């Protein structure tokens, strides 16, 4: 009798265990043994996550997740770090894609190295124009190539167009000048600003097939960098059409936030019915830059710089800017206005304030924020305006800052922490192709400003937590997408990256060299 009871108890126990196993939910992927930075409201760090149909269905400890879920695919990360996929809130995706057809001179550190790359391209691509980028140029003494005479000698009648690293100058040869109907104005073939852009307009247009391949390469570069959502600021009608067609055929996967240029075609086809929002392509905003870059002395400033250099000029009249903003409010889409100088920033903020209701939900943005007067900071908080910055631009502008800004303006330039104090949120972007497509470099730049303090003696460096948020959840908020991405939470898309080091605590100067080991988009590995 006692033996029968023991057998019965064993049978009941086995039955319960079997039932327990059967009650586990099947999921597509389980992450375990990881340090997962959720970037949720409490900035929690967990061990494990379960993913089904491209979304997170549970997060927690290994014991909890493995007790509740089962999967044929288990990702044992052995203590590695997981972060939400990075969101590049300010990039020029299509322009970046088109630069990928250009010869990259990034590692060419001598004139002979540059000429060898250009000559090899000419040999392998007879009849094609030579277009290159990333030429090292630090005027006036450190130019790898002093002038275009060597290009004329070595490359003959083949048109040559080379962007410098900062896209401030273009070096062109005599054949290129002839094609563009230009004179080099005695600068040895170095064109600056509008001259460079004018010459670039004459470059050959890629075929549709070539452009598609460039776009797919650009997507691959994003995934390799851990970017799971990017942007096309100033998108043209033709570019939006191409992106839309690639999404519809399933060729393109990376989600893109497009801020449209206010062209007649965009107005006619898109802007009147915005916002247009699909899972992958979001047409939410109209973008316009109203002044030029600091380093080119094209910014619109409240006063001349320390050297008395004249101000730049507005690219749009105040009345036209206001009219465009009123159209945005009427149709219910975002405004995204780029401004570099403090006078331009004041015009944008006052125009927004004259149209927007106080504490509104429109999430209008100010891009390229370089210089803003202390008294104008209040507009961001009062009208829920989102500041968008590109931290790597600080390094590029340091020579201009040190040589052209007075003591007062040096305290107001790149005031990231003061901007953060207005809305408790700021978004970061690469500005690619005008900046490096590398979130790790963005993080380093945001955390490593020189020992420069503003009026309230506050350092402008962002903390690791702040800059990580600027590349994830705050970026999602700026795209009206914080319910679907930007953090690792139940119900959100499973967009995440795996990194071998803790990017929030590691030695900062090593950050730019940290590689993303794996990238997942909607639960599918894309790197």
Please describe what this structure looks like:
The protein is an alpha/beta fold. It folds into three domains: 24-82 and 497-527, Urease, subunit C, domain 1; 102-200, Roll (Diaminopimelate Epimerase, Chain A, domain 1); 208-485, Metal-dependent hydrolases (TIM Barrel, Alpha-Beta Barrel), CATH 3.20.20.140. The protein has 19 helices and 26 strands. The strands form five sheets. Strands 10, 16, 17, 18, 19, 20, 21, 22 and 23 form a nine-stranded mixed sheet that branches. A six-stranded mixed sheet has the order 4-3-9-24-25-26, with no helix packed on it. Strands 11-12-13-14-15 form a five-stranded mixed sheet. Strand 20, helix 12 and strand 21 (365-367) form a beta-alpha-beta unit. The longest helix has 22 residues, at 2-23. It is globular, with a radius of gyration of 26 Å.
Walk me through the topology:
Elements: H1 2-23, E1 25-26, E2 29-32, E3 35-37, E4 45-46, E5 48-52, E6 55-60, H2 62-68, E7 69-70, E8 74-76, E9 81-84, E10 86-87, H3 93-99, E11 103-104, H4 111-124, E12 130-135, H5 149-155, E13 160-164, E14 169-172, H6 174-180, E15 190-192, H7 194-200, H8 208-224, E16 227-235, H9 237-248, E17 256-260, H10 264-269, E18 276-277, E19 281-289, H11 318-331, E20 334-338, H12 342-355, E21 365-367, H13 378-382, E22 386-389, H14 392-404, H15 407-410, H16 416-423, E23 427-428, H17 439-446, H18 464-470, H19 473-478, E24 496-499, E25 516-521, E26 524-525
Parallel strand pairs: 1-7, 2-8, 3-9, 10-16, 11-12, 12-13, 16-17, 17-19, 19-20, 20-21, 21-22, 22-23
Antiparallel strand pairs: 2-5, 3-4, 5-6, 9-24, 13-14, 14-15, 18-19, 24-25, 25-26
